[in-house]
Amino acid sequence: MVRGARKFIALGVAAAVVYSIKEQLNFVPGPRHAAPVAAAAAASMMMAPAAFADEIGDASKKLGDASYNFAKEVDWNNGIFLQAPGKFQPLKALKAIDKMIEMGAAADPKLLKAAAEAHHKAIGSISGPNGVTSRADWDEVNTALGRVVASVPKAKVMAVYDAVKDITDPKVPAYMKSLVNGPDAEKAYQGFLEFKDVVAKNQVTAASAPAVVPSGDKIGAAAKQLSDASYPFIKDIDWLSDIYLKPLPGKTAPETLKAIDKMIVMGAKMDGNLLKAAAEAHHKAIGSVDSKGVTSAADYEAVNAALGRLVASVPKETVMDVYNSMAKIVDPTVTNNMFSKVNPLDAVAAAKGFYTFKDVVQASQRCYTRILSLETPKQVFPPVNRCTGAGEMKFLALGVAAAVVYSIKEQLNFVPGPRHAAPVAAAAAASMMMAPAAFADEIGDASKKLGDASYNFAKEVDWNNGIFLQAPGKFQPLKALKAIDKMIEMGAAADPKLLKAAAEAHHKAIGSISGPNGVTSRADWDEVNAALGRVVASVPKAKVMAVYDAVKDITDPKVPAYMKSLVNGPDAEKAYQGFLEFKDVVAKNQVTAASAPAVVPSGDKIGAAAKQLSDASYPFIKDIDWLSDIYLKPLPGKTAPETLKAIDKMIVMGAKMDGNLLKAAAEAHHKAIGSVDSKGVTSAADYEAVNAALGRLVASVPKETVMDVYNSMAKIVDPTVTNNMFSKVNPLDAVAAAKGFYTFKDVVQASQR
């Protein structure tokens, strides 16, 4: 079945209820003119307040007298209503659906709404083994449907009848009649004939005007992006399969009906004009369907835009009721089975496009008190820049400012010196996510002297050299992780205000970079050194030395001499001597005790959402080869200055993070690294704690700042990176992780300041 029709039915699945109720009234064949109401029933999707004369209401009560016994005999839970009414002919059936859509588009939106509300009420009164509604609600449903049909010109109703008749086996009516008491069926049919005459008496002769279709809106633009991303996936799908007629495994009709009821409620709340516009878009899309059941790219885009606007006209909680009810009845095996039938890369691209689209729709949704959606990252599997445990990878992704700090300060260790000279150089690598200074001017004055001694050296360093991405010795990922752990511990012990000031100093320094070697200005060089000195002085010496020892343990002894060979030797010596004097001033101001541990929130929505994310994504985490050296590779086709722009956005984000939550995230990562196994994977419990900590941390930053990071990364990560990473894991685990992440980020965003 074509994509457009499938989506329309998904939104308007109330039609299934209407059809199953009314189809039974056609057991006894009658003259052609008796068909309109039965045919219209199948077309009355997404019903909606009545305003017809009491004549139809009175006729409905008479119909109830004649048909309710019959209604009680019908087994409404019978799976036969899912089957095709004859030979399976999907494209021919699509033509019938198209006629139903046309009829629905011509109906009065207020009457459609009233019919939906009547069905919702009727579902609430269902009882007994056969699943029949109450007599009163049976009458109300018939009344509402009669009014809907009367709001549509006869020609459109008859078009539905003719199309349905064309796909229905002539033996169906007699067979269906055989399932109930024959005389009751006959009586019901006679009552139906009288009812349809009353409806016809009140029937309009001309259809309402076409819908007013919005244009130039954000949803329309987002629909184009979604369509471009997902159309290859749409073409992968076998729309002519009969799998769409299969019942959901392990679910009863009453269970499924609960989900359908939520859809009916959603349909009743949709904007009437937009509902009509969506129906018209689907009608046009069906007109361009090819032999494989696929509509044109342009019509697919128009359908997505129409559906997006339609969903945006409904309160979020109503949409979520539909989602949650469907989640309860669709077994994961269904998703996995459908996924196995398409190109996984196309499916992932479509999913990513959809999540981005739904955020735009949600931002336009009415009854909002705040924006609840963070624009979805375009990379489901973002590139990582270290080979570490799962928790550590995510910490570095947020705190990548460390790369800048490390590359600036590492150069100051070209000339080997006594062990006590190491703290500042080692601390530089640990000062991730820097943040306002409040130290004595002594460190600031010493920084200026260091600048006098080292700036010539700084100008000689090729800061754009890819060598800074390489391991400083033999590739030992788990050993390197221990060094990173010490850096995290040091960062957690640092004064948050000083970390913020250091981040701001780095941001300013990046802004003044110039020349072929990518060096910052002298003034900003001094400010960065001063800020880092203050950060190091806020950490006890033992923690600084722990970083030094761990880094030394993974660094080849030949590295300092080699790095020195890349610059002017005397300038490097002078810089190092200046560094030794600077570190003495820092040590003089150094604290002797670490600050108190972070206060970790508990019982919050982000914590609960982190558990759901972790449960959904932990299998994916275990699929990843965390010990690979791929994380040290440069991004293909991107220069160091281009990458630095993205890093700068991360530094700005780090500077805006809440200090206590930053410390809590560092402590969670430290604990997670402690439980890492031989494959670089942390425990499930620690993984969950890291996700919760990161969620709270991101929620402490304004949305626009987070989006700056996302947009900057989107510019430098080539799609081939995503595809390559995706190819290395179980695709079903990856998709489950992505879905879990998108749900999690919505909860985070709802808490965002």
TrEMBL record:
GO CC field: chloroplast; light-harvesting complex
Keywords on record: Chlorophyll, Chloroplast, Chromophore, Light-harvesting polypeptide, Plastid
Entries under Pfam families matching the protein: PCP
GO molecular function: chlorophyll binding
Superkingdom of origin organism: Eukaryota
Transmembrane segments: none
InterPro entries (alphabetical): Peridinin-chlorophyll-bd_prot (IPR003376), Peridinin-chlorophyll-bd_sf (IPR036550)
Localization in the cell: Plastid, Chloroplast
Coiled coil ranges: none
Known role: Water-soluble antenna for capture of solar energy in the blue-green range. Peridinin is an asymmetric carotenoid.
UniProt name for this protein: Peridinin-chlorophyll a-binding protein, chloroplastic
Record organism: Symbiodinium microadriaticum
